[in-house]
Write a structure and sequence with these properties.
The complex is a heterotetramer. Chain A is an all-alpha fold. Chain A has helices at residues 3-24, 28-48, 52-76, 92-111, 129-138, 144-166. Classes of the chains: A mainly alpha, B mainly alpha, C mainly alpha, D mainly alpha.
């Protein structure tokens, strides 16, 4: 077993353990903090995959913005923050069963695929994935349309979120 | 060797040093706790009610606007790296991208969401 | 060298955990936390296929970045909906949010 | 290659010889050497941090026409060590009802978020932890961990002041992160790379001459990111006392405090790297790596001094003004500057360096002037409107 494999296994265990804590923590702030550690584990996974840009963006976007937004949202809906009642709904066992089935099904499907034991070829020297990414994002015969559409999507989300959460009819104190 | 190993080492050492300092202080410092010491500090006044108070929704709005801008600005980094080689077309694309983004800001502004009160 | 299967199985496990969270949590914010886990597992797959395929084809990374944008939009709108419902109905429990039912 | 040009490699080779001589496998020896190097750098940073406490106290004293620490040791130099002894032997109290685990992790994360920044700081042409091609984003990523530490500290303390302070601080930090990210894009455009070494190597002309406005916006955003005056919303003696770290005592408080000082110094260094040529100073860096390190530390100190100067000169700003300033002025200005820079970069490509530099400089100055003029017009109109409202309301009262 090589060092990289050991690091991968540790990261995977850490991430999956944090993931389990996310879905089982009673306290929602704890769940959000466990989500942060799970996402950090995913960032390490990207680093293992030599996707430097993705790893850093994962930390910037998920930990720096999305997790903060989650914590703010929990604070704003604070009534349930220390909810002592059950955090699972009545048919949680069905959800658990379905998750296990999904995992089993994916595992079974993967077993039958020939490309599974493929190993990565080393990154060619002089290959700069960020320049390549820049090229791909702005050259017209590649992904310039998704790039612009992502901008539209995010602005639409901003407008929608601002409107939904705080439109004047919702009894907000603002005029 | 992968540069990420050094980053990992920085994370590990960056944790070891504060843990060591705090642990050392914990080891040397006195530990005589009593209920008065463990009260919440509010300038000597007794705490009233729960400390997890309801917050102004405005904090959430700013976090929301930040989230959108953060993701979009991060998208611009690969664009900026290649800008020197790609000429005017890429610049125009980036400007369109930024203008769409600024339209969202203007909307939020006009709706009065950026006001504090 | 880590074989591709490890990444895929890891991502599948993370996806299942997220799915469990989405299906079983009562709190709407917690459901969104589960959705985040699922989106991340998808991203791991995309990055892994980029790395184990032809590295000069950037499709995997580009799609992963688009997924980041989608995740951000989903969180923004989803949490806004939760907050809006909380203000009107004073609850964040998904079972009790049933205005559309009848 | 002599010792004076690349001391790290010489030292690493020497250690490598020793370790492999002991029968250690090569990869383990490499990791051990990396660990030792990182540990040495971080230990030096902590010593520097202790020294920064003294610098800060001396400088603020001079700004306020006092002497500052002058009793313990010559010029009070031993004072910070006395402070540390005090911090160490203080009792470490935890408020009742605090979330103990989160409460204890927060100060460590806060310190770590500052220390990991140094992984990408190039101290000399060859002395850099990691020359990643994503250095600029790495700063923001580390800052994200710092933001998280603050919110953890505020939430876990079970204290209203702490939570309010944390919320304010986080709102300010995340808001000003946008202009900061945008200004990181401008050196990236010039250098065609996000790696700090590449950015420094490309600075034959300091970027402050190409983009003076960008440097100013970056400085403002950095000060806000640091949470120092005039943007120190987290603290307020008359309202929320110490803000998010109010319940912390002893060494845990010390971690927040030391982290803040080192953070300020580090951002002084980033100012130097991004806009003032980093370790380059008229070819001095070619003479010896040690001179290069001296140059960058000197530039970092200048940046740190400017940050202190701002802190002790200006008064605090209210949080609504601060956020309005960011979202209504700084962010649009930063994005406009980014668009103008990208456009000018494309239009002036291929011209001589002199035309390129003066074109960039002039466009920056013009944009800055226009922005100030717009802000001035707007505030005049606003003042007239407010005064008008006052007059009309008075007249209605009279009427």
């Amino acid at each position: 077993m090589t060092g990289e494999q050991i690091i991968f296994l540790l990261t995977a265990l850490f991430t999956l353990g944090s993931g389990v804590m996310v879905v089982t923590s009673r306290n929602l702030i704890h769940a959000a903090l466990w989500l942060v550690s799970a996402l950090f584990g995913v960032a390490v996974t990207y680093a293992l995959l030599d996707a430097a840009f993705l790893a850093v963006v994962q930390v910037v976007v998920y930990i720096g913005a999305i997790a903060i937004l989650f914590i703010f949202a929990v604070m704003l809906t604070r009534k349930d923050m220390r909810d002592q009642g059950p955090q699972m709904n009545t048919n949680w066992w069905f959800g658990a069963l379905l998750s296990v089935l999904v995992f089993g099904g994916l595992f079974f499907l993967l077993q039958g695929w020939s490309g599974l034991s493929r190993t990565a070829s080393p990154i060619p020297p002089g290959f700069d994935s960020i320049s390549e990414l820049g090229n791909a994002l702005i050259s017209p015969d590649a992904y310039v349309l998704p790039f612009e559409v992502a901008s539209v999507l995010l602005v639409a989300a901003l407008i929608g979120a601002v409107y939904v959460a705080f439109n004047p009819r919702s009894g907000d104190t603002r005029k | 060797m992968s540069p990420w190993i050094y980053i990992g080492l920085f994370f590990i050492v960056g944790l070891i040093i504060p843990v060591g300092a705090i642990g050392f202080a914990w080891f040397l410092g006195p530990r005589k706790s009593n209920p008065i010491k463990r009260t919440t500090y509010e300038c000597g006044i007794e705490t009233v009610g729960d400390s997890w108070v309801q917050f102004k929704a405005q904090y959430y709005i700013f976090a929301l606007v930040f989230l959108v801008f953060d993701v979009e600005t991060v998208f611009l980094f690969p664009w900026a790296v290649r800008l020197g080689q790609l000429g005017l077309f890429a610049v125009v694309e980036g400007i369109i991208f930024i203008l769409i983004l600024l339209a969202g800001l203007v909307y939020t502004w006009r709706k009065g969401m950026l006001e504090w009160a | 060298m880590v074989p591709l299967s490890w990444y895929l199985i890891f991502a599948a496990a993370l996806f299942s955990i997220g799915l469990f969270g989405v299906l079983s949590r009562r709190n709407a914010v917690a459901i969104l936390l589960g959705v985040e886990l699922m989106l991340n597992s998808v991203n791991i797959n995309l990055a892994a296929f980029w790395r184990y395929g032809d590295v000069s084809q950037m499709a995997g990374q580009v799609f992963a970045i688009i997924v980041f944008a989608v995740a951000a939009a989903e969180v923004a709108v989803g949490l806004a909906l939760v907050i809006s419902v909380y203000r009107r109905r004073n609850t964040v429990v998904a079972d009790e949010i049933n205005m559309m039912k009848w | 290659m002599s010792f004076w040009n690349d001391p790290l490699k010489i030292a690493a080779d020497w250690l490598m010889g020793i370790f492999t001589g002991w029968g250690m496998p090569e990869i383990a020896a490499q990791i051990l050497i990396g660990f030792l190097g990182v540990f040495l750098l971080v230990a030096l940073l902590m010593v520097l941090d202790i020294f920064l406490v003294w610098v800060e106290r001396k400088v603020v004293a001079r700004f306020q026409d006092r002497l500052g620490p002058n009793r313990v040791g010559p010029w009070g130099l031993i004072q910070p060590f006395a402070d540390i002894i005090k911090l160490i032997i203080k009792e470490d109290t935890t408020p009742g009802g605090a979330d103990k685990v989160v409460y204890n992790i927060a100060p460590m994360l806060s310190m770590m978020s500052v220390l990991i920044l140094w992984a990408v700081v190039p101290l000399a042409p060859k002395i850099i932890g990691v020359d990643l091609n994503i250095g600029a984003l790495y700063i923001i990523a580390a800052g994200a961990i710092g933001t998280l530490a603050i919110i953890m500290a505020g939430w876990s303390s079970n204290n209203k002041f702490a939570l309010i302070g944390a919320f304010r601080q986080v709102a300010v930090m995340v808001s000003f992160e946008i202009p900061m990210l945008t200004m990181l894009l401008i050196p990236t455009i010039f250098a065609g790379s996000m790696g700090f070494n590449a950015i420094i190597e490309a600075q034959d002309i300091w970027y402050v001459f190409l983009a003076p406005l960008a440097a100013v916006i970056f400085l403002i955003a950095a000060i806000a990111e640091l949470g120092r005056a005039p943007f120190d919303m987290a603290e307020g003696e008359s309202e929320i006392v110490a803000g998010f770290n109010i319940e912390y005592s002893g060494m845990k408080f010390g971690m927040f405090y030391a982290g803040e000082l080192l953070h300020a110094f580090t951002f002084g260094g980033f100012m130097g790297i991004l806009f003032f040529g980093g370790y380059r100073f008229f070819g001095l860096e070619q003479v010896s790596a040690f001179l290069a390190v001296a140059v960058i530390v000197f530039k970092a100190f200048i940046g740190y001094w400017i940050i202190m100067w701002v802190k002790y000169t200006l008064m605090r700003i209210r949080i609504d003004h601060m956020l309005a300033f960011n979202w209504k002025f700084l962010t649009p200005l930063a994005f406009t500057l980014l668009m103008v820079t990208a456009l000018m970069n494309a239009l002036l490509a291929g011209t001589s360096p002199w035309i390129y530099t003066s074109g960039m400089f002039l466009s920056n100055v013009a944009l800055g002037w226009i922005a100030l003029e717009v802000a001035r017009r707007y505030s005049r109109r606003e003042r007239a409107r407010v005064e008008g409202v006052v007059t009309t309301s008075r007249s209605t009262l009279v009427g």
